[in-house]
């Protein structure tokens, strides 16, 4: 995670370009859209104070008309999203694998704009729902815009783009009553995925913890489709793109996820916004997996099949650069809503494969922008403008902004000296990779795409027991919301082909018949890289709720809160009143949250401060006890000092270690016999260290909670 260097981040060329379109009204007078200063903006023009409004009130009409037209269609998928600016830097020149200019010079910072999103929900739906997350990156390179439009899951539901409208219709709210919002737990989704079993692998991911990210900052990104990298000698390789978050991959638990959706529907956007405002700039490393053209058929899956991943153990991920997000938007609509991505926005050195999903995507994205942003000039909107110059013979269209002088708007021409002239490859002209293609025109799918269950089973078997249990529970939750009994039964029967144990437990939970004796696919390998338990761990940027009331001990400020801050952890006081609490050293600490509106689901860990008076005040508050109870049930780290430990027992957080037993907590303390619970009689270095370690571990799964 990068930190702010000397105050504000340095401006990129894209920032400078956006600045030209940024209008600040500070200290200015109110005008109409025609620049006319207005003396009054509260009263419409009337015939008499109590009379009708007059048609000639141009100010009223302009204001009202603009308002009436303020909405544009939301994205048909990925409607709810959140974006930020940043930059990308390559580690080493990548000339050997690609001629893409932005992947050559480590000193060059290429500006980026990233939009994260959910897929199924509407623009106003909650951030934390069970769903795939979009991870779309626009690189403003010197050779034009390059868009890497990915997800946080490396595979997709379908193999051919022609099924995309069907899949989306099935997962979206059902058409007769528009229920449910932003959920896959309904009949049509499960009907689709069990009648189109190519979806099985992706469904396993969608039921896994990957679909419940703790933060956009803590999820991986994948380009999903197979692309090509081409070097200056014309040598091409197949490539899959990866984004690896420096903070590791972390998820929330399902009960918590659902509660956050109510307590703070903006949980993920707030998290990203706050992190950037605080100077905790999120970072991802860009990785590539490469397969040589002559190795295309060396695998037991088809490398063009978007429902298959390339196990990292077979095809290693080579980390080639890093992206840092360091600036929030100035205006959500102008930037995040109007940004228009397209996997077909490529630069020389990046090309496509025949992946049939990618091929269809190459049509859909521009098409959808025409509807959504209202015409063919969406590339002129500030957020979409390349920093590379744009010259061609395209003219006119809705809301054209550039003024292109001259008599000539066609190619080839003699009158204008044939400008703008096509650039040969040696001058940066894009040349498509000359892949040899031949075949009969057929509506068909290759036999090599037929295995629907092998990698689904590999994924499941590569996970830890806890992750597998979460998948089983997710299936039980989702299918218990499916009303159609045939669909329920079919789900049991289909997923028995992934894992008979999972299917049997599902059948038992939802009143379906046990699956018939099915031989699951023979899984030839496990891929430890797929388990999020094996990813980087860090306490940095985590948020701790400090439960306290009445007074605060100076020793706790110095020996607990200071070391937490030094480890990059944010600690915020939660109490029965907002305002300031006195410390025993004549200081004061600010209470940031009221118990009524705070909730443990909005924090990564809980710390109960000591002090008899304070703890008694908390004990009198059922909300405080619930706060700790819930954090415990969500496997979160819990710490307490002195009398603070009194809050743990009524909250069901186990009990102190019996005398004589081996203590697990801090040295000076009656240790608590529970994983991830750190208790001490008085604050000291060991206590703070144990707490930071417990926070870095994220959740304490060995805890036995009901
Ligand atoms: Fe897509 C948006 C990612 C398959 C058609 N897609 C969209 C966004 C992301 C993805 C991240 C949101 C972009 C933004 O933030 O504005 N889509 C994917 C991935 C896919 C995928 C990783 C599988 C590899 N998509 C896919 C297919 C089709 C589309 C097969 C149609 C053939 N996607 C669209 C779209 C959207 C879109 C309808 C809606 C809004 C937009 O494009 O700008 O064109």
TrEMBL record:
PROSITE patterns, per this entry? CATALASE_1 (PS00437), CATALASE_2 (PS00438), CATALASE_3 (PS51402)
The molecular function terms of the Gene Ontology recorded here are:
catalase activity; heme binding; metal ion binding
Q: Which residues form the active site?
A: 78, 151
Q: Which CDD domains match?
A: catalase_clade_2 (cd08155), GATase1_catalase (cd03132)
Sorted alphabetically, the keyword list is: Heme, Hydrogen peroxide, Iron, Metal-binding, Oxidoreductase, Peroxidase
Q: Which residues form the Catalase core domain?
A: 31-419
Enumerate the Gene Ontology biological process terms.
hydrogen peroxide catabolic process; response to oxidative stress
3'-histidyl-3-tyrosine (His-Tyr) crosslink location in chain: 342-365
The cellular component terms of Gene Ontology attached to this UniProt record, alphabetical and capped at eight, are: cytosol
Q: Which residues bind heme?
A: 75, 115, 164, 361, 365, 372
- Reaction equation(s) it catalyzes: 2 H2O2 = O2 + 2 H2O
EC number(s) reported in the record:
1.11.1.6
What cofactors are annotated for this protein? heme
Pfam families in alphabetical order: Catalase (PF00199), Catalase-rel (PF06628), Catalase_C (PF18011)
Work out whether the entry's keyword set contains Heme.
yes
Q: What does this protein do?
A: Decomposes hydrogen peroxide into water and oxygen; serves to protect cells from the toxic effects of hydrogen peroxide.
Q: Give the family, as the similarity comment puts it.
A: Belongs to the catalase family. HPII subfamily.
Q: What is this protein called?
A: Catalase
